[in-house]
Amino acid sequence: MNRRQWIIIAGISLLALLGGGLTSQWINKTDSASDLAVRAFFNNPWQTPDGKSLDTQPWREKVLIVNFWASWCPPCVEEMPELEKLQWEFSNQNVLFVGIAIDSPSNVREFLKKTPISYPIAMGGMNGSEMYKALGNSQSALPFTIIISPSGKIISSKLGKISEDEVRSAIKAAL
Length: 175
Known about the structure:
This protein has helices spanning 3-43, 74-89, 105-114, 128-134, 164-174, and strands at 63-69, 95-101, 121-123, 144-148, 154-159. It is globular and about 80 Å long. The protein is built from 5 helices and 5 strands; from the N terminus they run αβαβαβαββα. The chain has a domain at 57-174: Glutaredoxin. By secondary structure, it is an alpha/beta fold. The protein has a 5-stranded mixed beta sheet, sandwiched between helices.
């Protein structure tokens, strides 16, 4: 090879190295963005459908299954009894389910009269869609479920109806 070919190869190699470095920084920034979204989730002033404040402190350091849902969403309604069943199944193991309603408080109250849920239900309010977008739901569709590890990292997410087996597997992997 002549000198010019070596210079071209060296230039391409340098560009590849820089590209890899920039990509890894982007991946790290994405991870930190996810960490910021989880912190914002825990620090959000969540309220019940009755307007009472919810304390997120008991939600921390648990395997947390967060399900964004609405009473007008058929797949959301279908999965609620399954999530309730799983909450009872894992109730003695550092696992907690939380429902975030992207709906009106009156609709949620009416839904909960017909479908009792034992785990906390919080109102997503006006920033509910912003919250689930920050947590990884780029399509803004429901249902959307994330699983947060006890250390505060998102370990799994699912857009669309989630099955009992998917939740069970993710919980067991996190415990």
